[in-house]
Here is the input.
Amino acid sequence: MTVAKKKAKTAEYGTSYNVKSGVTAKDKITKKSLTKNITYTTTKYVKGKYRKAKFSTKSLGTYRIKYTVKSSLGVKTTKTMVVRVVDTLAPVITAKNRTVKVNTANAVTGVTAKMRSGANRTSAMTVKIKAPGASAYTTYTYAKAKAYKFSKPGQYAVQYSVKNTNKPYRAATKKITITVTGNVNAQINTSAEIVTVPAASTDQTVINAVRAVVTINDNGTVVAGTNTTVTVVLVKDQAGTVTAANVSYKGKNGVTVTKQIKVQFEQATTGTTEQQTTSTESTAQHSSKES
Here is the structure.
């Protein structure tokens, strides 16, 4: 009976492992293959000794596999090999993008890290956080990350890393984005309290003029009045003349804020008509004197 030299002596946890693969036997007398007749028994090293057990890659440990085959003359041959079921792959980190309110604490809420075999590695994680506006990550232990406070609205890039406890200490990394929303209402600011537009301005011209003087501060984020998230609705009197514009915006905290801006039109220019009338009158007076 022969056990192939290439037959794996280790098996990763949870993977497929064929116990009989690579084990062959041939009858020395008949020269016929006895491979199909090979049987095996397994024992597992538990508490200082090998005990009868079923081989399984879902159970870590050292197994001793004993192969047996009988020849055509009834001669029994045995071979024994040791196979270790190990867990050396990178752990599995579970983490999802999420949204929290500003000043929420704990950068590891809902995050877990486990070995393939089930051992918990969550508290062994290293956490890197890059806050809005930061140029680089800051590294925290699990305990420090648990106490971390998201004090500024915006998007935080968060990276979790953890190593296997077994050689070669393979590491897993998981990146997510945590969006922090403000708990303060957005503020509509204007560079002018009254917007003045040409006399013949269309509604769209008025709207554009209003947008041009508006900026919004949404918990640290500046939004231009020209942004499509800003709504401008004109207010008209009974004659259909625009008198004001209502500007509205829905902030990160879900609250819509509104501000009204007055609108006035420039008066039509009459100077040209007056000059023509004066000129005509002056010419008439001059002619009367000559005659």
User: Anything to note?
Assistant: The first strand starts at residue 2 and ends at 3. DSSP finds three helices and 23 strands in the chain.
